[in-house]
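Q: I'm writing up a methods section and want to include an example of the input and output format. Could you take the sequence below and give the corresponding predicted structure tokens, formatted cleanly so I can copy it straight into the document?
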Amino acid sequence: MSADAAGRDDPFRASRWARVAWIALAVYVVYASSRMEISWERVVTGLENASRFFARMFPPNFERWELLLKGLLESLEIAVLSSAFGILLALPVGLAAARNLMPAWATWPARFVIVACRSFHPVIVAILFVKAVGFGALAGILALTVASIGFIGKLFTEAIEEISDKQVEAVRATGAPFASVLAFGVLPQVFSRFIGFSTYQLDSNLRNSTMVGIVGAGGIGGTLFAAFQRFDYDFVCAILIAIISLIMVGEVMATGVRKVFLEGATLADLFSRSGRAVRVRPLEGD
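A: Here is the clean output for your methods example:
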């Protein structure tokens, strides 16, 4: 066997440009580390400080559970409202941005809206809304609504652009209006993905709602920031445990929503202890 044939048969053959890329990456990592003043002494000092910090966090202090519960409920309300508003607004924006269904004069403005909403971190947007509407949950709801439009709008657009054109053309051939094309040609192909995107956005907003409160946009984040400022680390630990519990509850809720919409589950199925998978309901006429 010749050397060229052996090289073609080797799935892991080395590439000159791959080696150059790895070497360039290693050189840049070393350069960036030197610019960022990263040193082993700082790491050792950080470990010592972290050990003292974690020692002061335990055991967690749940004595102020009323304040903790109030912050958690406000974060939950912010996440649910912002997800609902964001998804409802992202649906028409994402549809308008789909190039396989809409003309260019509609897709480019819609894509600009999506890019503008995705350009800034939710905390930065929350700071802007705090300046505009003042401190409180309203600023957090508006900030996470903007973030939801950007994220969900992009995913909706990509899902619509990946559908099969055959089903859409079949519905159009019947002379159906555009709304019927969407209902019978587009929605059945993307519905399961829409549900997945929506539940993920709710989960994401649950996490972000605990963060925007740091800048005064409501939620448990404000309580967490105040506890850090008071060096009340045992209460900080209690807040962190509560946030983890909230995210776990959100994950369970998201799983239940997916089962209800995609597998036809009932409330009895969701709370069943049998653990068996829920069967998908057959369509009429099957």
